[in-house]
Amino acid sequence: MNLDNLNFEFYSPWFLLLFLAFIPLFILDARKKKRAGIKVPTTQNMEENKGILLVLFLLKISKYVILSALIIAMARPRTFTVSQDSDDGKGIDIMLSVDVSLSMLAKDLEPDRLTALKRIAKKFVNQRPGDRIGLVAYSGEAFTKVPVTSDHNVVLDEIDNLNPLELQPGTAIGEGLSVAVNHLRKSKAKSKIIILMTDGVNTIENAMPPQVGAQLAKSNGIKVYSIGIGTNGYALMPKRTDIFGDLVFDEVEVKIDEPVLREIAQTTGGKYFRATSNQSLEEVYNEINQLEKSELKTTKLYHYQEYFRIFLLIALVVLLLDALLRWVFYKFLS
Fold first, then answer.
1. Which secondary structure element, helix H or strand E, spans residue 71, and what is its range?
2. CB 301 within 8 A of CB 83
3. In this structure, what are the phi and psi dihedrals at residue 119, rounded to the nearest 5 degrees?
4. To the nearest whole number, what is the mean pLDDT of the chain?
5. How far is residue 178's CA from residue 208's CA, in Å, rounded to a whole number?
6. Residue 168: CB partners within 8 Å, gap ≥ 6?
7. pLDDT tens readout for residues 84-133
8. What is the dihedral angle through the alpha carbons of 64, 68, 70, 73, rounded to the nearest 10 degrees?
């Protein structure tokens, strides 16, 4: 359940127009002030009696306070919060498993593979408002960046922070897949999918084999869409660093283990895609977005805190105080 910020409103704001009635009241009070004042048995030392002057002032403004409180109470001031409630059992849980090996900085996509992927993946996340989404980053090892969550802002931030230098070098496709499976296996969503992205071949011998990861996904009812990222032929890839620590790019043949990626998809009931350009990568995500339609509908729940009782209490207290002051004042004058 997501909770938005505190908001304020008047349920019946038209009652606030009653404040316009104060205008003729002010005019009447002004005319009364011009006429003779209150007749009292004696006025000796009244100007010096600040207590009586204070009582007169309070009696004069009390009616405005009472009317103001009643008008505001009728307008019903209240604060409210809006929460979104959804049935997780009817939604789709999606885990993005992203290869962040150094080769993802290859420049066959604009400006490079990883930057292109970030932009398109974020667009995909924004198109799935009703689904829970998580993020796994992997290269020579795999790491969960975000467990599946409905807080997409966290996912978007972590996609932006993907860095090829944050994990051990290499490409362990099976690790990236199995870590994602581990986070989805207990999900109660109607559909569980993993979008597995890589631009290379499995290079870590003692890591989880991709085929085993695929079987784990299948046994837990998880569908895998695998994506091979990279052009056909050769691409500028980072191969070493110079004496200043800057990456040096060389033309290298693009190698993607398509048979393994296709096998993973077929084993789990998913589909394999090859993205050789920014446009084709975006088309892949658009197709997955169409294939996995969510039936989840979020319901907005409004939680109100009413304040009209406070203003009714103010009106009652001032009314009683006014009556008491008038009784004491006129008894004093009599």
1. helix 50-75
2. yes
3. -60, -45
4. 85
5. 8
6. 139, 140, 141
7. 655 555 578 999 999 999 899 999 999 999 999 999 999 999 999 888 99
8. -170
